[in-house]
Model the fold of this input.
Amino acid sequence: MADRELVTLAQYLLSEQAEHPETESEFWTLIAQMAYVAKVIARETRRAALVGRLGQVGERNPTGDTQKKLDVFANEVAVGAFHRSGLVAAIVSEEMDEPKATLSGSAGRYILCIDPLDGSSNTDTNGSVGTIFGFFRRSCQGRCSSIETELRQGTSLVASGYALYGPSTVFVYTRGRTVPCFTLDHDLGEFLLSHDALHCPPRGQAYSANLGRVQEWDGGIQRFVAHLGERDSDSGRPYSLRYSGALVADLHRTLIEGGIYFYPADASHREGKLRLLYEGAPLALVVETAGGRASTGHQPIAEITPTSLHQRVPVALGSREDVQLYERFAAGQDA
Ligand code: AFP
Done:
């Protein structure tokens, strides 16, 4: 059987550029450059065990997590790829305390917020990991007082997406219209269009959460979990539990098969564990563009105005009806 017509990411970006001449031309370069970052990280995660890149470096990152060698590597790749690009003014990363001003400095129109290696606790066990990115348009041009003032709420994201390093490497991006998905052909070294547009089903039959923390969650969330476990064939319950420890992997499955991923506040994470700027907000744009919903449980993630670079936020992402149900339980209005 002949291969289906193969569309490379480069071809796809060119045709998008032709269709949307109003888009700043540098935008397409941002996406192409991020895909390059994903390829380099994919290559290194595949051979990490052979080149001494597994394990920890002994440091903790700004959000208190232990840093893995691959975390540091992935961060260096991302910084290297955008430092001289002339496109971004600064890079905010999970792996850096302070934003990194790039060589283009105040000339850059965007700020890149990135979790270079999401789920890095999986690296030593050959589990899936990912990269999450968001490009924010700066709210002021030239020299501004501080990076916090330049970052506005998630609705000002111009593009976001993720790469998933699993059995295959996928690259997903959106600018709020559709969510195309590309799969890396390692032999060609090219991302090829594999899903024209991801559409999150309105409801699923699986949930992803660290159930080990259930006793520390609000009563409403505990009741939500109990509800998902009750038998009811009309609504497809009980839901199955699927949790990988890598948000990107759980989210990618949720986008394709439906369901919900959530990480609420708990005793160790009073504000939630995930970070707004380089996890919650970028993935909220992806999920909502795919027809799903992204919420803290009490408000849309995209409506939160960031107040600090490494701000945390409770998160519920996935199928619209499943997230709405979560919100009802979080508000104490059980089903
Ligand atoms: P790391 O990137 O520090 O490994 O954190 C991963 C993550 O942010 C997200 O990808 C996972 O879903 C979640 O944290 C896992 O956290 P728990 O280990 O507390 O379940």
Remarks:
- The radius of gyration is 19 Å.
- Residues 26-47 form the longest helix (22 residues).
- DSSP finds eight helices and 15 strands in the chain.
